[in-house]
């Protein structure tokens, strides 16, 4: 990107989709988006099974509806959060105010760390409930692969969201540096590319 501040192009510059797609936070956010689809999709699709002698379907995770509900809720909300922050990342170069950029990055840090924590809780909860499941509740082992996929991608999501928080923290360092530079040298051009 040409000129600018805080890891972004000059405010008001043209949107460069190629540069946007190559940014690490964009790639990680897209990967997190896919992981959230896998988690809630696998639970919605094959997360509810029934015994041969029953009609009502129960959650595959130890017949605990809270486990399925948690996985679906966190997956759907993480999906929406990824879309929201992808839009913010695309709009970020257009934000000219240092304070507004700082607020956007601080919210990114908080939200990403919060989602890493929620995925950690989800991974622990789903793993615990999967281990406590009884073989007689699912004699045909239906949905076992979907349950393992939900657990696996919950685990991977911890790291993608943690990396997003780390990248946002690095971006905050750039903003703080630029803010201090602008305070010391108010008439100087921007240093950061």
Which overall shape is indicated by the principal axes computed on the Cα atoms?
Answer: elongated
Structural class: mainly alpha
What strand order characterises the main sheet?
Answer: 1-2
Proportion of strand residues: under 5%
User: Major sheet, described briefly?
Assistant: 2 strands, antiparallel
- Estimated radius of gyration: 21 Å
Order of helices and strands: HHEEHHH
Number of helices: 5
Keywords: Membrane, Transmembrane, Transmembrane helix
InterPro entries: Marvel (IPR008253), Synaptogyrin (IPR016579)
Subcellular location: Membrane
Membrane topology: Multi-pass membrane protein
Structure write-up:
This is Synaptogyrin 1. Belongs to the synaptogyrin family. It is a multi-pass membrane protein. This protein is mostly helical and 193 residues long. Helix content is 68%, strand content 2%. It contains five helices and two strands. The protein has helices at 17-22, 24-46, 65-91, 98-132, 144-184, and strands spanning 48-49, 58-59. A hairpin with an 8-residue loop joins strand 1 (48-49) and strand 2. Helix 2 packs antiparallel against helix 3 (65-91) and helix 4 (98-132) runs antiparallel to helix 5 (144-184). The protein is elongated.
